[in-house]
Amino acid sequence: MIDWLLGLVFPLTLLLMMMLSLHSYLVKTVGVNHVYRLWLMLPAGLLFFNLPMTWQLATVAEQPEILRFVVGSLNSVTVEDEQIWFVVIWLLVSIVITLSGIISYGFSKKYFRLEKTTDSVIEQQHLPVTLPKNLDLYQSRYVTSPMLLGLFSQRLVIPNNFQQLYNQEQQQLILEHEICHFDRNDIYWNLLAFILLALFWFHPLVWLAYFRYHRDQELSCDNIVLARKKMTSRVNYSKALLVTAETSSAFAFAQLSFKK
Known about the structure:
12 helices, globular, mainly alpha
């Protein structure tokens, strides 16, 4: 497992360096929507690298067996000992990151109290937009900003004071933004990004790419929502973002990929 993981570090580094170094140029030339799709190049590239190639099999077959001896006192740290420590540290941190995501997801479902009752589910006729068929809308006094929650049964959760915080057009634009996440299955792509983060947490470029990816995701949805909208709508949406920033929790940045 660890040999397979370390074998992916080099191609992953090349892909990350290419994506991050060209990021600003690509955003200006092809737009953030296409740049967001380009992030798929990372898992696709790793998958391609793992495919069995004829030249790889031939190279492995031709390599002679290498015997390695460690000369020194019995108390010296061997290469095998160093590998074991690396495996232990990598596994512990990966488990901590994974558990933090699972606990955050489970805690959110319990803390937001999203049981499907007549008090929490909003009637669709009261909304300025039509929601997708498989997406239910919920209200919660524990939510400070709209978000999608759930993997198998996604729910759109908005604050109890959603109608008081935003005017009619702002409500429409915000809901369209969340519907954009839902239509593109962003939660599942976020789960894939989170898995890669848990596997390659020791790589600093992975963390930088993770946050860049999420920023591109949000900007891409904003771009889709505001496409062909008038300047007044764009200004109105900007004001809504300011209201969201003012009312959001100080730890909103820590929301993991299972919530969007």
